[in-house]
Design brief:
This protein is an alpha/beta fold. 34% of the residues lie in helices and 26% in strands. It folds into two domains: 146 residues, Rossmann fold; 106 residues, Dihydrodipicolinate Reductase, domain 2 (2-Layer Sandwich), CATH 3.30.360.10.
Length: 264
Amino acid sequence: MAVPRRVLVVGACGRMGQRVRAALAGEPSLKLAAALEVPGHPQLGIELAPGVHLCDDAKAALAGCDVAIDFSQAAASLLVLRAAAEAGVAIVMGTTGLSGDERAELALAARRIPVLHAPNFSPSVNLMVWLVREAARRLGPGYDAEILELHHAAKLDAPSGTALLLAEAIAQGRGHPLDGHLVLERAGQIGARPPGAIGVQSLRAGDSAGDHSVLFAGEGERLELVHRSQTRDHFARGAVRAAAWLAGRPAGLYRIEQVLGLDG
């Protein structure tokens, strides 16, 4: 049996970090080797697994690891990304709300290490993205497209990365860029809907792990594609699956569709 790849979990005591650690226990090709949290975290030094103590030093945490899984916020993720590039460690990132410059930094790091960034690691969400792209392509411009997303009250960015991914899929299916067609806000006397508009509305309430609905509305009919998350476990399992796939690959910027076989 092959020796398991060694994994660093970034934000190991956060909501997603805890679920990623739990998911690792079910993946025999990987094992938890290091755990990272922010400086000053109250649990620093505790033993999360045999021989694995929570630390706040990214360079030390990456030493001896094969791949990192990171769902932390953008500023922290970029620090880990830079350290991973220096250490030659592959990285799976689920951080959302990245700016254009931050995405450019991902691409730069991918010249040195394998990098896989996705706004959503759920297999069914990524299948939904594929279906939305196909629906937009086959239905054509005669169907208006709207996206509605709901997340927990503590989420910092809006719209969600998944909503933007779905909007991009609609634009790709229609054969035009998203820029110039994305509508994020409606208020006042806005006039008639612009041709080709892709509307995204964000709701923030309660503890929702994430709901996304895509509506294609035509004359006399409406198609709705919906995904609802009850827990974060499927995101974690998808990230662990991506880490198992990514570890050991050549440097490059990879996509979750490649992991799931949706890129053909």
